[in-house]
From TrEMBL:
Residues 87-253 form the Pus10 N-terminal eukaryotes domain. PANTHER family: TRNA PSEUDOURIDINE SYNTHASE PUS10. It is an enzyme of class 5 (isomerase). Residues 271-503 form the Pus10-like C-terminal domain. The keyword Ribonucleoprotein does not apply. Pfam families: Pus10_C, Pus10_N_euk. Residues 191-223 are annotated as: Disordered. It comes from the Eukaryota. Keywords: Isomerase, tRNA processing. Belongs to the pseudouridine synthase Pus10 family. This is tRNA pseudouridine(55) synthase.
Length: 510
């Protein structure tokens, strides 16, 4: 490694052709108070082994700059106070303790990711100070012109190395499912960018005329916190001389280190698909809570989602069904297709049997909600659930009470007339008017068959296209659905029980 580091500092790849030249540059940079990594950055040393914490002693020696007090591990109080002065260029963002903190907090969550992408959000002052160092370097006779490495890239490299070493994950910029977002904060230098805000524009509009867009934007930038792009743009537009007039070059030291303002560890969602059966009534598909009050005790989402959340150690979950039945309607037959999105899962490397065990546990506990074909699915497979809504047909079985029992001949007549289906005109039902626009929609029943049970009671089997309101078809909804079973039977009809017996959508994928 010794060869590699010397090569990086003053070898063929470097702008410095001898150790003496490199040391002179390092001395000039170190005199600004810059940390070792910032010395390397402004010497144009490409990201690599020289930036590793383990190489620090070797790099210090190669560049002939003294090891700062306190980096040996046995700090006296006095040394610690000296240490309070932090790097004026990176505000100690590149200090190994920050990379360690990110790695520790990542490790504590026990994600089973194999790789990750790191995102970095730097304080604006770091961009100002980067430019101040560049202006300083340009004027220095010892520091050669080179492409300085940015703080963002350097931090990604340092944190990436630490994560690779301590957590065994690979850091690349591919489309990893794991994102580590580090936002840094440094209150002390929060005003560094103020000298570089867009200049106020001359207000030449006549009194009362609306402000121009550009003027309004400039005002916003001045009055409120400007966005980073505005500051970076202003810095780029600034000449070295102009910059020097507004900001000290090299930048002044800061007393305290930048800290991690927020660290977001976000894993792409994991999707589990299957079909659910609801064997009892009074279970809603998702928690039914109005004004903080729970109206239905159980939900399909919680019964299936909670064990999946525990298995994947997710922050949250979300169940999406291919349509939904009312809480008082059972879901029988082969079940209703659904998927559960597990949000920010820690565990995603799951054997098919671990998912099936969730299904088996529901069966063992005789849960009122059961699943079929529970399995991991690809994110793209969820589209079928969302789009399948319009294409699928459903089979229902209803227990119906008729005020006036029908003759056998009349039952046969209705069945014969409806054998090839019925076209309904359904106005938006009264019970959903609060959330759906009042419209009349044509809906097709594909099949209808009435069978007498006894007395006033009938078993009615219906196959309908998606979106037809079955309860309203039975009782007529005060004449808003025509024809209805009530109008066909010529008497009042009441629906006592309703079951969905089949949802014809092929899901999950085989
Ligand atoms: Zn630094």
């Amino acid at each position: 490694m010794a060869g590699t580091i010397a090569e990086a500092l003053y070898g063929a790849q470097s702008v410095y052709s001898s150790a003496e030249e490199a040391r002179a540059a390092a001395a000039a940079l170190a005199a600004t108070g810059a940390c070792l990594l910032c010395v390397l950055r402004f010497m144009g040393v490409p990201l690599g082994p020289a930036y590793q914490a383990e190489a620090a002693a070797e790099v210090h020696e190669a560049l002939g700059i003294p090891v700062p007090a306190g980096d040996g591990g046995s700090d006296t109080q006095e040394q610690q106070q000296q240490q309070q002065q932090c790097c004026p260029a990176c505000l100690d963002i590149l200090h190994h303790s920050l990379a360690d903190e990110v790695a520790d907090r990542y490790r504590a969550q026990e994600f089973d990711a194999e790789d990750a992408v790191i995102g970095v959000d730097l304080p604006k002052s770091v961009y100002v100070r980067q430019r101040a160092m560049e202006v300083f370097c340009a004027a220095s006779s010892a520091v050669r012109k080179s492409a300085a490495v940015g703080v963002k890239d350097a931090l990604k490299h340092v944190v990436g190395q630490r994560l690779a070493a301590t957590c065994g994950i690979a850091i690349d910029n591919s489309d990893s499912q794991m994102r580590i977002e580090i936002a840094l904060a440094h209150a002390e230098t929060a005003d560094d960018h103020r000298p570089f805000l867009p200049a106020p524009q001359q207000d030449s509009r006549p009194p009362g005329a609306p402000r121009s867009k550009a003027k309004a934007k400039a005002d916003r930038a001045r009055d409120h916190e400007p966005n980073l792009a505005a500051v970076v743009g202003e810095l780029a537009a600034c000449s070295d001389a102009d910059f020097r007039a507004r900001f000290p070059c090299p930048p002044r030291a800061a007393a305290g280190r930048a800290r991690i303002g927020s660290l977001e560890l976000r894993r792409a969602s994991l999707f589990v698909g299957g079909r659910y059966l609801k064997l009892e009534r009074n279970i809603s598909q998702t928690p039914f809570i109005v004004d903080g009050q729970r109206l239905v005790e159980l939900s399909v989402a919680e019964i299936i989602g909670e064990p999946l959340r525990a298995l994947t150690r997710s922050d949250a979950y979300n169940l999406v069904g291919s349509g939904r039945e009312d809480a008082d309607v059972r879901m029988l037959g082969a079940g209703r297709p659904f998927y559960v999105e597990c949000i920010n899962p820690r565990t995603t490397r799951l054997a098919p049997d671990q998912i099936r065990e969730v299904e088996r546990a529901l069966a063992r506990s005789a849960s009122p909600v059961q699943t079929r074909r529970l399995q991991l699915i690809a994110p793209a497979d969820t589209a079928v659930i969302k789009e399948g809504e319009e294409h699928k047909s459903k089979h229902y079985c209803a227990l119906v009470w008729l005020a006036q029992p029908l003759s056998e001949a009349r039952v046969a007549e209705i069945n014969a007339a409806a054998r090839h289906g019925l076209l309904l005109q359904q106005m938006t039902p009264v019970r959903v008017l609060h959330r759906r626009a009042p419209l009349t929609r044509p809906k097709r029943l594909l099949a209808l068959e009435i069978a007498h049970i006894e007395g006033h009671f009938y078993r009615v089997r219906i196959e309908s296209e998606a979106g037809a309101y079955i309860k309203e078809f039975v009782h007529g909804d005060l004449g808003r659905t025509t024809p209805s079973l009530a109008s066909l039977a010529g008497t009042t009809a009441d629906i006592l029980e309703l079951d969905v017996e089949n949802v014809s959508l092929d899901f999950p994928p085989p």
